[in-house]
Amino acid sequence: MEAASNENESCDTWSDFRSDKTMKIKNIFDQIFSMENLYGALEDASAGRRYNRDVLHFNLNAWEMLNEIRQEVYSGTYSIDRYFIFYVYEPKKRMIMSIRFRHRVVQWAIYRVVNPLLVKGYIEDSYGCIQDRGNLRAMQRLRYWLIQVSCRDERWYYLKLDISKYFYRISHRILKKILAKKIKDKRLLRVLDAIIDCEHTPFGLPPGKGPGEVPLEERLYDVGMPVGNLMSQMFANLYLDALDQFCKRVLQVHYYVRCMDDVIILSNSKEQLRGWKDKISAFLNTELELQLNQKTCIRPISQGIEFVGYRVWADRAVIRKSTTLHMKKVLRAKKEAYRVKEITLKQAASPLIAYLGMLKHCDCEAFRKKLLEDFVLTHAEKEDGEIQERRSTSETVYC
Fold first, then answer.
1. Of 251, 257, 305, which Cα lies nearest the Cα of 280?
2. Which residues pair with 307 in a beta bridge?
3. 223-254, pLDDT tens digit by residue?
4. Is the peptide bond before 351 cis (omega within 30 degrees of 0)?
5. For 258, phi and psi rounded to 5 degrees?
6. CA angle 229-234-240, nearest 5°?
7. 267 has pLDDT over 70
8. Stronger pLDDT, 87 or 73, i.e. the higher one
9. What pLDDT, on a 0 to 100 scale, did the predictor assign at position 82?
10. CA dist 145 to 57, 304, 312, Å?
11. How far apart are the first and last CA of the chain?
């Protein structure tokens, strides 16, 4: 049994642990906003969107634009503009927020320097938005552990933690406190605070509310991170690092893996998992002002574990049903967009290539074959007032 000897004292010892000396990030403001790093940030921010109008406009006068950014951050006048808002409905309704390109450059400049330093302090089994530690690596780590425990003559269970509306409930006050403990550069903290406390656009939701239930004018300014934002990914990982440290160092959980806000814990004791769940719930409430939702569950590992888009057992991993349906829907839309000549062949094939890369790491050969058979691209031509489809072998994608 993976029982921790100090489990009964775990919540009491957290205050001792968080007072421990950790790595401090100092004197990096000038490095972040050097012209060399800003040009690197411009390249990163331009990737995949180089021919967008705002990117072309910025690059036309790159030196002048970057100098303008430097002057704002050095003078302390830099601030975020109002966000552009749109909604996506797959796999569920989410409000996505985007910002002007110049702010993307600023965020990339910070991310390039700060994120690698923060990652050094994360536990080994923290995944998501970390170089070489994405969803695939998280799934493979979980499967490795399932192989280990399945060899034992015991019944094993998993605890799946689901945090209610995570991105919409991150406390700005607590996030800034965490950043202030990690970063000892006051000039950088002022810029980060300006990014977190956007005075133009509220991101947060009241407890228990979903994105579709609260109009924009009733959203909260003191909680929440904009979904789809580069800095939000960095902040979200850092925010739950406290949970990682609590579980690993205080509860001394061995089989623990987190990918952003998805957490899986393994044990051969239901009672132990229930105890850990209660302590984690109390920790999230008191330390991070977050709540677990009704999707949090304890089940046998024999049922398979849904994690980061896969369903995982010791002997196999498959794509979740909802993920396969989403793939089919995206590819149908790409086929139609290509048929009416709205996108190029490369743009149409891009998601298929990404999906095939994902599928090669799991046991989905029949589904992979079906995707390839169905993904035949054609163009529509207008002849004599009627639309006729012409199938071109030169424009058919074979992978």
1. 251
2. 310
3. 999 887 899 999 999 999 999 999 999 999 99
4. no
5. -130, 135
6. 120
7. yes
8. 73
9. 83
10. 50, 13, 11
11. 47
Residue 367 has, within 13 A of its CA and on its CB side, a CA count of 19
Query: Which pLDDT score is estimated for 2?
Result: 42
Phi, psi torsion values for 314, nearest 5 degrees = -65, -35
Identify the burial level of 35 via C-beta atoms within 10 angstroms of its C-beta, where 0-12 means exposed, 13-18 middle and 19 or more buried: exposed
Name the most confidently modeled range: 206-220, 260-274, 324-338. Answer: 260-274
Q: How many Cβ atoms sit within 10 Å of the Cβ of residue 129? A: 19
Whose structure tokens read 């001394």? 252
SS3 370: helix
Instruction: Name the more confident of 398 and 51.
Output: 51
DSSP 3-state of 162:
strand
Paired residues of 25 in beta bridges: 183
Q: What is the pLDDT of residue 177?
A: 96
Q: Which two structure tokens, joined as six digits, stand for 89?
A: 């409905």
**H-helix or E-strand spanning residue 101:** helix 101-119
pLDDT of res. 18: 59
In order, the DSSP letters of 282-294 are: HHIIIII---B-T
CB-CB contact of 189 with 183 (8 Å): yes
d(CA 393, CA 61) in angstroms, rounded, equals 43
- Which helix (H) or strand (E) element contains residue 98? strand 94-98
Record the pTM.
Answer: 0.83
Average pLDDT over all residues of the chain: 87
State the burial class of residue 270 (Cβ atoms within 10 Å of its Cβ: 0-12, 13-18, 19+): middle
Length of the chain counted residue by residue? 399
The residue whose two tokens read 């398979």 is: 304
In DSSP notation, 306-324 reads EETTEEE-SS-EEE-HHHH
> 158 near 296, Cβ under 8 Å?
no
Residue 300's nearest CA partner among 139, 149, 125 is 149
Distance from C-alpha of 76 to C-alpha of 200, rounded to nearest angstrom: 18
pLDDT above 90 (res 91): no
* DSSP 8-state assignment for residue 204: B
Check residue 29 and give its pLDDT.
97
Q: How many helices (H) and strands (E) does the chain have?
A: 15, 14
Which amino acid appears at position 234 of this protein?
A: M
Residue 309 has pLDDT above 60, yes or no: yes
pLDDT at 207: 87
User: 391 pLDDT band (50/70/90 cuts)?
Assistant: very low
Phi, psi of 105 (to 5 degrees): -65, -45
